[in-house]
Amino acid sequence: xxxxxxxxxxxxxxxxxxxxxxxSLAGFGVSLLAGILLLLGLTALSLSFDDPExxxxxxxxxxxxxxxxxxxxVALKMNGSEALLCGASVGALMNLALxxxxxxxxxxxxxxxxxxxxxxxxxxxxxxxxxxxxxGTHRKKRRRGR
Length: 146
Fold this sequence. Notes:
- This protein is mostly helical and about 150 residues long.
- It has helices at about 15-45, 55-80, 85-105, 115-135.
- Helix 1 packs across helix 3 (about 85-105) and helix 3 (about 85-105) packs antiparallel against helix 4 (about 115-135).
- Residues about 1-10 have low confidence and may be disordered.
């Protein structure tokens, strides 16, 4: 006798909402860890410049985008399918974390970017996470010629 139910085969990524939630939270954790490590490395790099503050906002945005890309990639690899949902959920969690952090340090970290740039940056976080998820999909190799 087989332990699986008749007609149902459990495959990777077919767990539904719980699988998506677990993979999104894992991708979010990887995003936070990657963001911290990138910020530490870029801070050490910026200290070698004459004016360390000159590129701080560009470096911070770069670290934010690269970390959300890594989070989307990990979320898809854990879930196995649904790249758009994996990336969008990691991007939404990243934006939620940014919102919570900004509630506590808004006076210190008042942005020199305008409101439109801030909105575009938040949208780019989601897009980078979705891009990271799509980079994690397996693509079949095309045959060239016979």
